[in-house]
Amino acid sequence: MANQTDQNSHSTKREVNWFWVLIQLQVNVSAIFSLVYLFKNGFTWSTLFFSILVVFLGWLGETAGSHRLWAHHTYEASKGLKIFLMLCQTAAGSGTIYGWVRWHRLHHKHFKTELDPFNPKRGFFYSHYTGWTRKLSPAQEKVLEEIDFSDLENDKIVMFQKRWYYLLAFLFVFLLPTNAPIEYWGETMAVSIAAATLRYAIVLNLTLLIQSATIIWDLKAGEKYPMDSNWVFVLVKTYWLSYHYLASWDYQTSEYGKYGDDVVTKFIRACAALELANNLKTIDSRTVRSALTKSVAENKNISECLLELSEKDENVPKDHYLNPKKFY
Length: 328
Ligand SMILES: [Zn+2]
Hints:
The chain has helices at 2-9, 18-41, 45-71, 79-92, 97-109, 124-128, 138-144, 150-153, 156-163, 165-185, 189-217, 240-246, 263-273, 285-298, 302-311, 324-327, and strands at 76-77, 231-232, 235-236, 277-278. It is mainly alpha-helical. One of its GO terms (molecular function) is iron ion binding.
Protein backbone atom coordinates (compact mmCIF):
# COMPACT_ATOMS: atom_id res chain seq x y z
CA MET A 1 0.00 0.00 0.00
CA ALA A 2 2.79 2.39 1.02
CA ASN A 3 4.63 1.37 -2.13
CA GLN A 4 1.60 2.29 -4.28
CA THR A 5 1.31 5.73 -2.63
CA ASP A 6 5.00 6.28 -3.31
CA GLN A 7 4.51 5.25 -6.96
CA ASN A 8 1.54 7.62 -7.31
CA SER A 9 3.56 10.55 -6.01
CA HIS A 10 6.14 9.89 -8.76
CA SER A 11 3.53 9.76 -11.49
CA THR A 12 4.06 12.33 -14.27
CA LYS A 13 0.52 11.83 -15.63
CA ARG A 14 -1.35 15.14 -15.82
CA GLU A 15 -5.14 15.36 -15.67
CA VAL A 16 -6.99 17.71 -17.98
CA ASN A 17 -8.12 21.00 -16.45
CA TRP A 18 -11.42 21.45 -18.28
CA PHE A 19 -11.89 25.00 -17.01
CA TRP A 20 -8.78 26.19 -18.91
CA VAL A 21 -9.55 23.98 -21.93
CA LEU A 22 -12.94 25.69 -22.27
CA ILE A 23 -11.42 29.14 -21.71
CA GLN A 24 -8.75 28.49 -24.37
CA LEU A 25 -11.26 27.15 -26.88
CA GLN A 26 -13.84 29.83 -26.23
CA VAL A 27 -11.31 32.68 -26.26
CA ASN A 28 -9.45 31.68 -29.40
CA VAL A 29 -12.49 30.67 -31.44
CA SER A 30 -14.56 33.70 -30.47
CA ALA A 31 -11.55 35.98 -31.15
CA ILE A 32 -11.67 34.90 -34.81
CA PHE A 33 -15.42 35.60 -34.98
CA SER A 34 -14.88 38.93 -33.20
CA LEU A 35 -12.21 39.97 -35.69
CA VAL A 36 -14.53 39.21 -38.62
CA TYR A 37 -17.40 41.00 -36.88
CA LEU A 38 -15.30 44.11 -36.19
CA PHE A 39 -14.14 44.38 -39.80
CA LYS A 40 -17.66 43.83 -41.12
CA ASN A 41 -19.40 46.25 -38.78
CA GLY A 42 -16.67 48.78 -38.16
CA PHE A 43 -15.37 50.32 -34.95
CA THR A 44 -14.31 53.78 -33.84
CA TRP A 45 -10.69 54.97 -33.71
CA SER A 46 -11.14 55.51 -29.98
CA THR A 47 -11.98 51.81 -29.53
CA LEU A 48 -8.92 50.84 -31.55
CA PHE A 49 -6.52 53.04 -29.54
CA PHE A 50 -8.17 52.00 -26.27
CA SER A 51 -7.77 48.33 -27.25
CA ILE A 52 -4.08 48.79 -28.06
CA LEU A 53 -3.61 50.46 -24.67
CA VAL A 54 -5.44 47.70 -22.77
CA VAL A 55 -3.43 44.97 -24.56
CA PHE A 56 -0.21 46.86 -23.79
CA LEU A 57 -1.08 47.23 -20.09
CA GLY A 58 -2.05 43.55 -19.69
CA TRP A 59 1.14 42.49 -21.44
CA LEU A 60 3.18 44.87 -19.23
CA GLY A 61 1.58 43.34 -16.12
CA GLU A 62 2.72 39.88 -17.22
CA THR A 63 6.21 40.74 -18.50
CA ALA A 64 7.39 43.58 -16.22
CA GLY A 65 5.19 42.29 -13.36
CA SER A 66 4.68 38.52 -13.06
CA HIS A 67 7.80 37.61 -14.98
CA ARG A 68 10.62 40.06 -14.36
CA LEU A 69 9.53 41.42 -10.97
CA TRP A 70 7.73 38.63 -9.09
CA ALA A 71 9.09 35.43 -10.70
CA HIS A 72 12.74 36.46 -11.05
CA HIS A 73 13.27 39.58 -8.89
CA THR A 74 15.30 41.23 -11.67
CA TYR A 75 14.56 44.58 -9.97
CA GLU A 76 12.74 45.98 -6.95
CA ALA A 77 9.61 48.09 -7.28
CA SER A 78 7.97 50.75 -5.12
CA LYS A 79 4.58 49.99 -3.59
CA GLY A 80 2.83 52.22 -6.15
CA LEU A 81 4.50 50.48 -9.11
CA LYS A 82 3.67 47.08 -7.65
CA ILE A 83 -0.02 47.98 -7.29
CA PHE A 84 -0.05 49.32 -10.88
CA LEU A 85 1.59 46.14 -12.24
CA MET A 86 -0.71 43.92 -10.17
CA LEU A 87 -3.79 45.64 -11.66
CA CYS A 88 -2.32 45.37 -15.18
CA GLN A 89 -1.57 41.68 -14.59
CA THR A 90 -5.15 41.17 -13.39
CA ALA A 91 -6.43 42.77 -16.62
CA ALA A 92 -4.50 40.11 -18.61
CA GLY A 93 -6.86 37.47 -17.14
CA SER A 94 -4.36 34.62 -17.02
CA GLY A 95 -4.78 33.76 -13.35
CA THR A 96 -3.16 35.09 -10.20
CA ILE A 97 0.44 36.30 -9.94
CA TYR A 98 0.90 33.68 -7.21
CA GLY A 99 -0.21 30.81 -9.46
CA TRP A 100 1.65 32.12 -12.51
CA VAL A 101 4.96 32.49 -10.63
CA ARG A 102 4.70 29.01 -9.09
CA TRP A 103 4.38 27.39 -12.49
CA HIS A 104 7.06 29.62 -14.02
CA ARG A 105 9.63 28.79 -11.34
CA LEU A 106 8.83 25.09 -11.80
CA HIS A 107 9.30 25.60 -15.57
CA HIS A 108 12.76 27.13 -14.97
CA LYS A 109 13.89 24.66 -12.34
CA HIS A 110 13.03 21.60 -14.44
CA PHE A 111 13.37 23.16 -17.90
CA LYS A 112 12.91 20.71 -20.78
CA THR A 113 12.10 17.71 -18.54
CA GLU A 114 8.85 15.86 -17.79
CA LEU A 115 8.57 17.98 -14.64
CA ASP A 116 8.44 21.19 -16.71
CA PRO A 117 4.73 22.10 -17.08
CA PHE A 118 5.49 23.68 -20.49
CA ASN A 119 8.16 21.18 -21.58
CA PRO A 120 9.33 22.60 -24.97
CA LYS A 121 10.67 19.19 -25.96
CA ARG A 122 7.03 18.14 -26.52
CA GLY A 123 6.58 20.73 -29.25
CA PHE A 124 4.97 24.14 -29.62
CA PHE A 125 1.34 23.06 -29.13
CA TYR A 126 2.12 21.40 -25.81
CA SER A 127 4.31 24.24 -24.59
CA HIS A 128 1.82 26.93 -25.60
CA TYR A 129 -1.62 25.33 -25.05
CA THR A 130 -1.66 21.81 -23.62
CA GLY A 131 0.78 22.52 -20.78
CA TRP A 132 -1.46 25.31 -19.50
CA THR A 133 -4.66 23.26 -19.71
CA ARG A 134 -3.44 20.33 -17.62
CA LYS A 135 -3.26 20.07 -13.85
CA LEU A 136 0.18 19.43 -12.36
CA SER A 137 1.13 15.77 -12.02
CA PRO A 138 1.74 14.30 -8.54
CA ALA A 139 5.47 14.37 -9.32
CA GLN A 140 5.29 18.07 -10.22
CA GLU A 141 3.30 18.84 -7.06
CA LYS A 142 6.00 17.07 -5.07
CA VAL A 143 8.92 19.03 -6.54
CA LEU A 144 6.94 22.25 -6.20
CA GLU A 145 7.18 21.76 -2.43
CA GLU A 146 10.97 22.06 -2.73
CA ILE A 147 10.77 25.53 -4.31
CA ASP A 148 10.75 28.58 -2.06
CA PHE A 149 7.71 30.82 -2.47
CA SER A 150 8.00 32.64 0.84
CA ASP A 151 8.72 35.91 -1.02
CA LEU A 152 5.25 35.69 -2.60
CA GLU A 153 3.58 34.69 0.66
CA ASN A 154 5.17 37.72 2.34
CA ASP A 155 4.15 40.08 -0.44
CA LYS A 156 0.94 41.79 0.65
CA ILE A 157 0.04 42.91 -2.89
CA VAL A 158 0.41 39.41 -4.35
CA MET A 159 -1.62 37.90 -1.51
CA PHE A 160 -4.28 40.62 -1.77
CA GLN A 161 -4.72 39.82 -5.46
CA LYS A 162 -4.84 36.08 -4.70
CA ARG A 163 -7.55 36.60 -2.08
CA TRP A 164 -9.76 38.86 -4.19
CA TYR A 165 -8.83 37.52 -7.63
CA TYR A 166 -12.30 36.66 -8.97
CA LEU A 167 -13.73 40.03 -8.00
CA LEU A 168 -10.69 41.91 -9.40
CA ALA A 169 -10.72 39.83 -12.59
CA PHE A 170 -14.42 40.49 -13.10
CA LEU A 171 -13.77 44.23 -12.78
CA PHE A 172 -10.49 44.55 -14.74
CA VAL A 173 -10.87 41.82 -17.38
CA PHE A 174 -14.57 42.22 -18.19
CA LEU A 175 -16.62 44.99 -16.65
CA LEU A 176 -14.46 48.14 -16.83
CA PRO A 177 -12.72 47.60 -20.23
CA THR A 178 -15.98 46.50 -21.89
CA ASN A 179 -18.00 49.31 -20.36
CA ALA A 180 -15.57 52.18 -21.12
CA PRO A 181 -16.10 52.36 -24.93
CA ILE A 182 -19.90 52.29 -24.45
CA GLU A 183 -19.88 54.83 -21.62
CA TYR A 184 -17.29 57.35 -22.87
CA TRP A 185 -17.49 57.43 -26.68
CA GLY A 186 -20.78 55.76 -27.49
CA GLU A 187 -19.49 52.49 -28.96
CA THR A 188 -22.18 49.83 -29.46
CA MET A 189 -22.31 47.03 -26.92
CA ALA A 190 -21.72 44.33 -29.57
CA VAL A 191 -18.56 46.05 -30.89
CA SER A 192 -17.29 46.64 -27.37
CA ILE A 193 -17.75 42.96 -26.44
CA ALA A 194 -16.11 41.82 -29.69
CA ALA A 195 -13.12 44.13 -29.07
CA ALA A 196 -12.82 42.86 -25.46
CA THR A 197 -12.86 39.23 -26.64
CA LEU A 198 -10.18 39.91 -29.24
CA ARG A 199 -8.01 41.79 -26.72
CA TYR A 200 -8.27 38.96 -24.20
CA ALA A 201 -7.15 36.40 -26.80
CA ILE A 202 -4.15 38.53 -27.81
CA VAL A 203 -2.96 39.12 -24.23
CA LEU A 204 -3.50 35.47 -23.23
CA ASN A 205 -1.46 34.25 -26.20
CA LEU A 206 1.30 36.80 -25.53
CA THR A 207 1.41 35.56 -21.93
CA LEU A 208 1.60 31.92 -23.00
CA LEU A 209 4.44 32.85 -25.37
CA ILE A 210 6.63 33.77 -22.37
CA GLN A 211 7.08 30.04 -21.90
CA SER A 212 6.73 28.79 -25.48
CA ALA A 213 8.77 31.53 -27.23
CA THR A 214 11.88 29.44 -26.81
CA ILE A 215 10.54 27.03 -29.46
CA ILE A 216 9.95 29.75 -32.07
CA TRP A 217 12.84 32.13 -31.59
CA ASP A 218 15.59 30.19 -29.87
CA LEU A 219 18.56 29.00 -31.88
CA LYS A 220 19.07 25.26 -31.62
CA ALA A 221 22.55 23.79 -31.15
CA GLY A 222 24.37 23.89 -34.48
CA GLU A 223 21.83 26.24 -36.10
CA LYS A 224 23.45 29.23 -37.76
CA TYR A 225 21.69 32.42 -38.80
CA PRO A 226 24.09 34.97 -40.31
CA MET A 227 23.25 38.56 -39.29
CA ASP A 228 22.12 39.54 -42.80
CA SER A 229 19.67 36.68 -43.27
CA ASN A 230 18.15 35.95 -39.89
CA TRP A 231 14.74 37.39 -40.73
CA VAL A 232 11.96 35.05 -41.70
CA PHE A 233 8.92 37.34 -41.78
CA VAL A 234 9.06 38.60 -38.21
CA LEU A 235 11.15 35.79 -36.76
CA VAL A 236 14.55 36.69 -35.43
CA LYS A 237 16.47 33.68 -34.25
CA THR A 238 18.60 34.44 -31.22
CA TYR A 239 20.41 32.91 -28.27
CA TRP A 240 18.95 35.44 -25.82
CA LEU A 241 16.13 33.07 -24.89
CA SER A 242 18.71 30.49 -23.84
CA TYR A 243 20.49 33.25 -21.93
CA HIS A 244 17.31 33.89 -19.91
CA TYR A 245 17.38 30.29 -18.69
CA LEU A 246 21.01 30.79 -17.58
CA ALA A 247 20.67 34.26 -16.04
CA SER A 248 16.97 34.72 -15.30
CA TRP A 249 17.80 37.54 -12.84
CA ASP A 250 18.97 39.91 -15.64
CA TYR A 251 16.26 42.56 -16.10
CA GLN A 252 17.31 43.23 -19.71
CA THR A 253 16.37 39.91 -21.32
CA SER A 254 13.14 40.22 -23.24
CA GLU A 255 10.55 37.45 -23.02
CA TYR A 256 10.75 37.05 -26.80
CA GLY A 257 14.48 36.90 -27.27
CA LYS A 258 15.86 40.43 -27.53
CA TYR A 259 18.30 42.00 -25.14
CA GLY A 260 18.58 45.51 -23.80
CA ASP A 261 16.30 47.42 -26.17
CA ASP A 262 12.76 46.06 -25.91
CA VAL A 263 9.84 48.10 -24.57
CA VAL A 264 9.63 46.36 -21.21
CA THR A 265 13.34 46.86 -20.52
CA LYS A 266 12.93 50.55 -21.37
CA PHE A 267 9.85 50.74 -19.16
CA ILE A 268 11.83 49.34 -16.21
CA ARG A 269 14.65 51.84 -16.91
CA ALA A 270 12.16 54.71 -17.02
CA CYS A 271 10.68 53.54 -13.68
CA ALA A 272 14.21 53.46 -12.21
CA ALA A 273 14.86 57.00 -13.45
CA LEU A 274 11.60 58.08 -11.77
CA GLU A 275 12.70 56.29 -8.58
CA LEU A 276 9.82 53.83 -8.79
CA ALA A 277 12.22 50.91 -9.34
CA ASN A 278 15.70 50.19 -8.05
CA ASN A 279 18.39 47.52 -7.78
CA LEU A 280 18.09 46.60 -11.49
CA LYS A 281 20.19 43.44 -11.81
CA THR A 282 22.39 42.90 -14.85
CA ILE A 283 25.93 41.93 -15.85
CA ASP A 284 28.50 43.46 -18.19
CA SER A 285 30.14 41.63 -21.11
CA ARG A 286 33.57 41.35 -19.44
CA THR A 287 32.07 39.63 -16.41
CA VAL A 288 30.10 37.24 -18.66
CA ARG A 289 33.41 36.24 -20.30
CA SER A 290 35.02 35.71 -16.86
CA ALA A 291 32.03 33.58 -15.80
CA LEU A 292 32.34 31.39 -18.91
CA THR A 293 36.08 30.95 -18.32
CA LYS A 294 35.47 30.08 -14.67
CA SER A 295 32.81 27.57 -15.65
CA VAL A 296 35.18 25.75 -18.02
CA ALA A 297 38.28 26.02 -15.78
CA GLU A 298 36.53 24.84 -12.62
CA ASN A 299 34.01 22.56 -14.33
CA LYS A 300 31.16 24.44 -12.65
CA ASN A 301 27.63 25.17 -13.78
CA ILE A 302 27.47 28.28 -16.05
CA SER A 303 24.37 29.64 -14.29
CA GLU A 304 26.07 29.48 -10.90
CA CYS A 305 29.22 31.21 -12.24
CA LEU A 306 27.16 34.00 -13.86
CA LEU A 307 25.23 34.59 -10.64
CA GLU A 308 28.31 34.42 -8.43
CA LEU A 309 30.36 36.89 -10.52
CA SER A 310 27.42 39.21 -11.18
CA GLU A 311 26.94 39.65 -7.44
CA LYS A 312 30.55 40.86 -7.14
CA ASP A 313 30.48 42.73 -10.46
CA GLU A 314 32.24 46.04 -9.93
CA ASN A 315 32.14 46.92 -13.65
CA VAL A 316 28.42 47.71 -13.42
CA PRO A 317 27.89 51.33 -12.34
CA LYS A 318 24.97 51.99 -9.98
CA ASP A 319 23.14 54.12 -12.57
CA HIS A 320 23.88 51.78 -15.52
CA TYR A 321 20.27 51.94 -16.69
CA LEU A 322 20.69 55.61 -17.59
CA ASN A 323 23.34 54.87 -20.20
CA PRO A 324 23.11 51.21 -21.14
CA LYS A 325 24.65 51.52 -24.63
CA LYS A 326 27.83 53.17 -23.29
CA PHE A 327 28.00 50.62 -20.52
CA TYR A 328 28.08 47.71 -22.96
ZN1 LIG B 1 11.53 33.29 -16.81
